């Protein structure tokens, strides 16, 4: 999703100010070793879109130390083609973001109850793409973006709808994680808790990790659901307008909040990095945020979150 692009400049200004602040850290506030700059990263919230050149993206990834990037395309699944042709080992194309989203917008309940012939036909083609390895994941699915829709249309349907149950089965069968954008309101969380047990082999990646949900609630959900993963885009400290207020996992000087540090280390096998950047300059700044976060974690936890979990989930070769 693309929130308030005009605020990107503000983000940079705050980044520069923050950079100055970090250079003047008082003695005694030191970050743990090893230096996170050495860790290869996997960005699980990168969208292919029109106007984005694969070479430019690969250049930005190389400069930031990002080895892999993926999620859905902002439009038809075919938008992934030039990226995969340019670097098949580095992009992780997900399917369904545009196609499923458009059918839900057009058909409403008939789409998420699987009563629409069009969605059934699309799911057949999606399964073929997963079977032959053209797609590595499913989504990003906008199950509930009522309070986080930015410039997009507000959508809400049950996280345990027949559509989501079918997609979870596909995720389990083809080792293709499901990326779910879902505001952390109680009803959606209840639905998600009914979806997850249906197939524990189906990984669900909660995109943006609930935007504002507290660490203790994520911990409770992860304790109960072994197939729940969290991707951290927009839990960074980028600037937003007054109408949209995600909560950062860090505080002053980008220090991890103690409950989030404890959670990231305790469930270090469940978290993934994501940028969801508006442009490649912002991409680099967001990666800087993650490197600062990773440098505050125990080395094994940092390695898992940086890329180890993605390697395991997507069966990547290193
Ligand atoms: Zn997104
Ligand atoms: Zn999203």
CATH architecture: Alpha-Beta Barrel
Assembly form of the protein:
single chain
Q: Examine the coordinates and then state which fold CATH places here, giving the name of the CATH topology.
A: TIM Barrel
List the uncertain runs.
1-33
Q: How would a textbook summarize the main sheet?
A: 8 strands, parallel
By DSSP (H or I, 4+ residues per run), the number of helices equals 12
Total number of domains: 1
Calculate the mean pLDDT score and round it: 90
Give the amount of beta strand, in percent: 5-15%
Number of strands: 8
Give the ordered list of helices and strands: HEHEHEHHHEHEHEHEHEHH
Q: Which cofactors or ions or other ligands sit in this model?
A: zinc ion
Q: Helix content range of the residues, please?
A: 40-55%
What coarse outline follows from CA principal-axis ratios? globular
CATH superfamily: Metal-dependent hydrolases
Strand order in the sheet with the most strands: 1-2-3-4-5-6-7-8
Q: Which CATH C-level class is it?
A: Alpha Beta
Computed CA radius of gyration, to the nearest angstrom: 19 Å
């Amino acid at each position: 999703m693309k929130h308030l692009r005009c605020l990107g400049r503000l983000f940079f200004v705050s980044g520069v100010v923050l950079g100055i602040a970090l250079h003047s850290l008082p003695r005694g506030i030191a970050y743990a070793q090893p230096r996170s700059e050495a860790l290869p990263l996997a960005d699980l919230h990168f969208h292919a879109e029109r106007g984005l050149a694969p070479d430019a993206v690969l250049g930005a990834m190389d400069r930031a130390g990002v080895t892999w990037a993926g999620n859905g395309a902002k439009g038809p699944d075919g938008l992934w083609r030039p990226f995969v042709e340019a670097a098949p080992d580095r992009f992780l194309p997900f399917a369904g973001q545009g196609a499923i989203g458009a059918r839900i917008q057009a058909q409403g309940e008939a789409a998420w109850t699987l009563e629409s012939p069009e969605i059934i036909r699309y799911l057949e083609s999606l399964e073929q793409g997963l079977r032959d390895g053209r797609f590595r994941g499913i989504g990003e699915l906008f199950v509930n973006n009522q309070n986080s829709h930015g410039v997009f249309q507000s959508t809400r349907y049950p996280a345990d709808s027949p559509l989501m149950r079918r997609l979870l089965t596909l995720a389990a069968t083809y080792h293709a994680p499901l990326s779910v954008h879902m505001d952390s309101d109680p009803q959606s969380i209840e639905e998600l808790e009914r979806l997850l047990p249906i197939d524990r082999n189906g990984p669900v990646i909660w995109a943006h990790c609930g935007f504002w949900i507290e660490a203790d609630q994520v911990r409770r959900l992860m304790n109960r659901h072994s197939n729940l993963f969290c991707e951290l885009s927009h839990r960074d400290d980028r600037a937003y307008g007054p109408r949209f207020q995600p909560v950062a996992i860090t505080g002053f000087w980008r220090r991890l909040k103690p409950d989030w540090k404890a959670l990231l280390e305790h469930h270090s096998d469940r978290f993934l990095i994501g940028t969801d950047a508006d442009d490649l300059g912002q991409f680099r700044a967001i990666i800087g945020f993650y490197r600062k976060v990773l440098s505050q974690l125990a080395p094994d936890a940092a390695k898992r979150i940086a890329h180890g979990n993605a390697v395991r989930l997507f069966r990547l070769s290193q």
